Amino acid sequence: MGRGFDDELTDKDLLQLLGLRERMNRLFDEQQLHLGSAATGPAMNWTPPVDIVDAGNKFILTAELPGVDEEAVDLELVGDSLILKGERPPHVTGTNSCYHRIERPEGPFRRTFTLPAGVDASAISAELKDGVLEVHLPKTPSEGDGAKEVDVEIER
């Protein structure tokens, strides 16, 4: 039997919904690649692939950013949103070169992720190494899953 409207969502349900939201955002971001005018050509935005893993005491966000310098990457925390943005420089091979195919994206990128409740915003750290950005999002210390046992007294 299906779930009713009065049923509470579990953490797993919420993570699945957040994942769906991120996939939808990515679809819309990727659609921007096909926009642009005839004069300027396609928009040069690109969307780096990202994995987010729940590692017990923290979440780990991993983004593939090959060819992006550390100085060109910016992480911002705005409310409950983590914004990853930056720019991959254009590929330059020389003045006498003629491209036959260009498939590696370049230019600016921007990704926004809604942080789940319980992330310790003051302890977020990030490292860019070998073209891979790893962001550690520690969870705030809590007792269990937020549930609290209540003593029930029975009167007779």
Rounded to the nearest angstrom, the radius of gyration is 21 Å
Strand count, sense and barrel status of the largest sheet are: 4 strands, antiparallel
SSE class: alpha+beta
> Total number of helical segments?
1
Text of the CATH class of one domain: Mainly Beta
Q: What share of residues are in beta strands?
A: 25-35%
Multimer state: single chain
Cross-sheet strand order for the largest sheet: 1-2-7-6
* Helicity level: 10-25%
Overall description:
The chain has 156 residues and is α+β, with helices and mostly antiparallel strands. It is built from one helix and seven strands. It has a domain at 44-138: Immunoglobulin-like. Strands 1-2-7-6 form a four-stranded antiparallel β-sheet, with no helix packed on it.
Short note summarizing the structure:
The chain has one helix at 11-31; strands at residues 50-54, 58-64, 73-78, 81-88, 107-114, 125-129, 132-138.
Question: Mind sketching the topology for me?
Answer:
Elements: H1 11-31, E1 50-54, E2 58-64, E3 73-78, E4 81-88, E5 107-114, E6 125-129, E7 132-138
Antiparallel strand pairs: 1-2, 2-7, 3-4, 4-5, 6-7
Q: What labels describe this entry?
A:
single chain; 7 strands; three-stranded antiparallel sheet; Immunoglobulin-like; 1 helix; 156 residues; alpha+beta; four-stranded antiparallel sheet; elongated
